[in-house]
Amino acid sequence: MKSILVVQLKRLGDVILTTPALAALREQHPGSQVTLLIDHYSRDLVPALQHVDEVLVYERKHSFPIWLQLLRREFDLCIDCTGTDRSALISFLSKAAHRIIFRSVARHRLRSWVYTELVDVSVRNCHTIDLYLSLVRPGTAAPKPALELALPEATISSAQKVKSKLGVTGAFLVVHPGTARREKYWVPERWAEVLRHLKERLHLPAVITGGSDPEELRHIEAIKGFLGPDYPVANVAGRLDFLLTAALIREAAFFIGVDTAAAHVASAFECPQVVLFGVTNPYHWHPTHPRGRVVRAGFGSDYEPRNPREKGQPMSELSTSTVIDAIESVLEAGARS
């Protein structure tokens, strides 16, 4: 039996986009012991992760236990999905005979000597899902596993209780307008216009999800202010943990939000969705399922993320009509299917 260490210390969204690689790894090495090392910011996702036998959580301020574990253990294979100095040190301490990362790390001489195999994949020119998959099965044209999150039954049950408390008895839509990065915020007045359109179009109540960052909460309150008191909206931002938020998104009839981990959750459950992008290039992060669309500031509603070098515009350049047109295209495609 092989002992495999997968190092993924990037953001929560990256951990979600790593799930196809974990599925492929399990398929390629059945019976192996797979350990996933993640950053503490992603710990909420652990109960929903499949195809791993063990999850280690790296605490930046209390990292000694992890370093001690690595010194005491020995792996056969280490796959580094992160590509930083910290992950290089972890890969070295894994003592694995095979230590794998993408070739671009070779630009860092002090880092590249750690690895025994550099995979020829362009970080710039492929979707993040494909990047992580290439580390598991380089050069393979096998069918791509889907994003996969398996929410615990207790979390799904808790989501039903949340819906009951909110008075949401039937179908609903999820709106996720906030994120940790201020440049991803869209104009509150335009959010309100889009939500009014969705109300008229779908006749469904809206549930706003989000984190607890004070600026994000103020942004959401501004949106609610433009909606007015008569709009049927329930705001759970900052009140639910990530898995419980994911359980609500799983049931949503429609998802709309900015580029953040919540959008990747909607992708994992193939929820009809529109994701808003500004300066960030959607090429590496866009939904890959057929009911997902992206819109980008500076482009029309027919935009497709085909160019990884394409420059974007500030979110203020994204018009309401562009977002509404993209919503309509997703709804019409769903009606045809």
Q: Strand fraction band?
A: 15-25%
What is the CATH level 1 assignment of the largest domain?
A: Alpha Beta
Which strand order do you get reading across the main beta sheet?
A: 3-2-1-4-5-6
Question: What CATH architecture of the largest domain do you see?
Answer: 3-Layer(aba) Sandwich
By secondary-structure content and strand pairing, the structural class works out as: alpha/beta
> Percent of residues in helical segments?
25-40%
The Rg value, from CA coordinates, equals 21 Å
Give the overall shape: globular
In CATH terms, the superfamily of the largest domain is: Glycogen Phosphorylase B
Could you state the order of secondary-structure elements as H and E?
EHHEEHEHEHEHHEHEHEHEHEEH
| Largest sheet features | 6 strands, parallel
Number of domains: 2
Describe this structure in words.
- The structure is a single chain.
- By secondary structure, the protein is an alpha/beta fold.
- It has two domains: 3-136, Rossmann fold (3-Layer(aba) Sandwich); 153-336, Glycogen Phosphorylase B (Rossmann fold, 3-Layer(aba) Sandwich).
- The chain is built from twelve helices and twelve strands.
- It has a six-stranded parallel beta sheet. The protein has a six-stranded parallel beta sheet with strand order 9-8-7-10-11-12, sandwiched between helices.
- It is globular.
- The termini are far apart.
- 40% of the residues are buried.
- The mean pLDDT is 94.
